[in-house]
């Protein structure tokens, strides 16, 4: 039976909005508003949603790069939400992040060797000679060559830079990798190569992934299970197969109804989803999606639906299914 490597309970991140000469707090942007989920060892959990849905904030909170407002994050059975900076730095050996823009995330003044060696130095792993050997080995693992070690980030293409970003994340042999839009800045042909590389590395190193993206096609390709976020909330969570074969939440249905348009942001502009995303500083009462939902009922405007298991392992937050649970 699979074991949960990461468990998230009631996680929230509110960013205060201040105004006036005294900078009084007047409201909160509820970037992440009470989400709970788990990730099993060795699986890939995709998190998908439109821009501003809170998926990247969630990823950064899991790494404690952003402090949660409330909630609990447990890694390997140990709560990490309250760990000190020092303890968290030690833990990052096992939890690493791959970022969207590989160029911005690599220090342009450091050679690839320095970039890849740094996590080993930070965590006190190996001596100089061993570290150099490990750098060269890792470059080969991600499809580059040992001689690339002496080069600088600007000497590589976008796809190669993302390979360097992935290599850096792997240097400490982590158990969990949080990849935040890791292929969205790349050409489509290069995206496929990087996705295949991530899949190969998962098998080779027994990795667990949280894969954050707005592209439904990319998420389908790589994920075992998928969580759909809307306005800071998780609205549907199930296996990739169930989600793409039989989506239950009206928002997921709307996103997927445009098969030739697998990018939610394009889908929105092309009218597959009507209406604008509400202001996250002033989200609608009840179901956050009710202002755009063609199946909206009276109760949807009053009560927030909870994420509940509708079918085996298929979680949905929608009043349409509450009768089914009650029966
Ligand atoms: Fe639509 Fe109501 Fe379900 Fe929200 S709760 S998705 S408004 S039917």
Rg is 21 Å
Which strands sit side by side, in order, in the main sheet?
6-7-8-3-9-10-12-11
- Which residues sit in consecutive blocks of at least 5 with pLDDT less than 50? none
Average pLDDT for all residues = 91
Which ions and ligands are bound to the chains? iron/sulfur cluster
In the CATH hierarchy, what is the architecture of the largest domain at level 2?
3-Layer(aba) Sandwich
Protein name: Dipeptide/oligopeptide/nickel ABC transporter ATP-binding protein
GO molecular function, one term: ATP hydrolysis activity
Domain ABC transporter: 6-256
Keywords: ATP-binding, Nucleotide-binding, Transport
Describe the protein's architecture and organization.
With 327 residues, the chain is of the alpha/beta class. The protein folds into two domains: 4-94 and 174-326, P-loop containing nucleotide triphosphate hydrolases (Rossmann fold); 105-173, no CATH class. It is 34% helix and 25% strand. It contains 13 helices and twelve strands. The strands form two sheets. It has an eight-stranded mixed sheet, sandwiched between helices. The chain has a four-stranded antiparallel sheet with strand order 2-1-4-5. A hairpin with a 2-residue loop joins strand 4 (70-75) and strand 5 (78-79). Helix 4 (112-122) crosses helix 5. The longest helix is centred in the middle third of the chain and has 18 residues, at 188-205. It is globular and about 65 Å long. It starts with a strand and ends with a helix. Bound molecules: iron/sulfur cluster. InterPro entries: AAA+_ATPase, ABC_transp_ATP-bind, ABC_transporter-like_ATP-bd, ABC_transporter-like_CS, Oligopep_ABC_C, P-loop_NTPase. It comes from Cytobacillus kochii. Belongs to the ABC transporter superfamily. One of its GO terms (biological process) is peptide transport. It holds the Pfam family oligo_HPY.
């Amino acid at each position: 039976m699979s074991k949960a490597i990461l468990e998230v309970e009631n996680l929230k991140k509110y960013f205060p909005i201040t105004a006036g000469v005294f900078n009084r707090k007047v409201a909160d942007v509820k970037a992440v508003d009470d989400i709970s989920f788990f990730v099993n060892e060795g699986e890939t959990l995709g998190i998908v949603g439109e821009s501003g849905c809170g998926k990247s904030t969630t990823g950064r909170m899991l790494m404690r790069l952003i402090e949660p407002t409330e909630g609990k994050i447990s890694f390997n059975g140990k709560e990490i939400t309250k760990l000190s900076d020092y303890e968290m730095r030690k833990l990052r050996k096992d939890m690493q992040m791959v970022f969207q823009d590989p160029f911005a995330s690599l220090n342009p003044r450091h050679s690839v060797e320095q970039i890849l060696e740094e996590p080993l130095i930070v965590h006190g792993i190996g001596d100089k000679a061993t570290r150099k050997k490990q750098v060269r080995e890792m470059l080969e693992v991600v499809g580059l060559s040992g001689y690339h070690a002496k080069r600088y980030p600007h000497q590589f293409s976008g796809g190669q830079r993302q390979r360097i970003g992935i290599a850096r994340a792997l240097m400490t042999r982590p158990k969990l990798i949080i990849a935040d839009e890791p292929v969205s800045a790349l050409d489509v042909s290069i995206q496929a190569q990087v996705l295949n590389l991530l899949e190969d590395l998962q098998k080779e190193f027994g990795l667990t992934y949280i894969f954050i993206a707005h592209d439904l096609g990319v998420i389908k390709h790589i994920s075992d299970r998928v969580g759909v976020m809307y306005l800071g909330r998780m609205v549907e969570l199930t296996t990739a197969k169930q989600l793409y074969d039989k989506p239950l939440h009206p928002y997921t249905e709307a996103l997927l109804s445009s098969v030739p348009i697998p990018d939610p942001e394009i889908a929105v502009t092309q009218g597959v989803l009507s209406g604008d995303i509400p202001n996250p500083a002033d989200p609608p009462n009840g179901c956050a999606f009710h202002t755009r939902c063609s199946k909206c009922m009276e109760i949807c405007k009053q009560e927030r639906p909870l994420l509940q298991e509708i079918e085996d392992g298929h979680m949905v937050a929608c009043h349409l299914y509450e009768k089914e649970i009650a029966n």
